[in-house]
Amino acid sequence: MTITYDPHHPMYLDEADTRAELTRVYDLCHGCRLCFKFCPSFPTLFDYIDQHDDQDAGKMTSAQQDHVIDECFQCKLCYINCPYIPGQSEWALDFPRLMLRADAMRRANGQVTLRDKATTAFMGNTDAIGKVSVATVKITNKVMGAKPGSLIRKAVEATAGISSVRLLPKFARERFSTWFDKRPKVRVGKKQGKVTVFPTCLVEYQEPAIGKALVKVYEHNGIECSLTGAGCCGAPYLHSGDMAKFTKVAVDNVATLAAEVRKGNDIVVPQPTCSYVLKKDYLDYVGGPDAQLVAEHTFDAAEYLMKVHKTEGSSLDTEFAGEVPETITYHTPCHLRAQNIGLKSRDLMKLTGAKIKLVQQCSGIDGMWGLRAENAELSIPIGKKLGEMVKDADGDVVAGDCHLANTAITEQSGTTPVHPLQVVAKAYGLDAE
Ligand code: SF4
Ligand code: SF4
Hints:
The chain has 4 domains: 15-108; 114-160, no CATH class; 176-310, Rossmann fold; 327-428, Rossmann fold. Helix content is 53%, strand content 7%. By secondary structure, it is an alpha/beta fold. One iron/sulfur cluster (SF4) binds next to α1 and α4.
């Protein structure tokens, strides 16, 4: 049994070795039980072990081990909760990364169904889908926006594996990069920074308003923005165990982004899953000085602004002449919490004078896990809980950084959240449309 989270380790994809490591970790978690409330994986795991009088994790079958793996949606909350992580404990336990290893191992050993592979191939190809969907936006939105459970949605589920009952984010009429290239050149005042925006597929093809707000807020504060040609971060491949495709995407993106950093730019990312991937996963799968450089210079969009505000000699404009809500319900996405950077979007929105009500509950979407047909039944109750918490908080505005989690909030509460940068743009009185 090898304790490794290094995808290049010779034993990483070995089935017997990975399953022995699963037994070791499942046994430790069964003894600890701290994470029982985060997701279905842990209760499932504990139930299987408790079926045996001697509570021996080694008696779990491969199918039972796989059941636990399938229910992990990579929120990372167990990692931030765990006292036994590598570097802090001899147990060197990193549950989410072990799940990634197990997924990759199963794929490498032919244990993933054709249907599953087809869904990953479809959902992972976000750039191709995004380009076609924006070009045919009226038809695409009619299909994807058809009533949940309708015949047309059932046909999409049958062909692409996307749940027929979930609310899906709509596509935009114009790509963010098209807007960015067309807009008049802007001269910033007192220069406080220089960034390259990694727009993410969600902002590029589905919610460009987030990117527009980012650029306007940054430029308003003297931060020059340019745009990278790098494509999707590759998260849908990574979270489905397709190591080969993820690594290819990651290698290309690291080369492109490292060149931006060498030009003197930091990289800013307006979606939490994607900034997590750039900061953490590229280090594991690509490694080397370029991946390190990219990780060190990548910031969540609000994190970067708060860095400017807290750095001596620079600060954000704190005069808000626009519309400031009295209370904001703010949903903290798991993949931002997992970055251990504090709640920078909350701090940023607090500068406007609004009172922030926090909602810390997973959406159950995590990447695209909750949108896959086979996961909808498990994911919807998690989203429902979030929807109820948002309704109970009853803020004047609902804000959240993750566009997919925001879509789950809309689905479950009827309220459409905005990104924190959209709140701030509006508070400055900037026209971010
Ligand atoms: S990463 Fe999240 S979903 Fe996966 S096991 Fe940990 S808490 Fe559960
Ligand atoms: S991941 Fe860590 S904290 Fe969570 S149950 Fe396992 S050992 Fe305990």
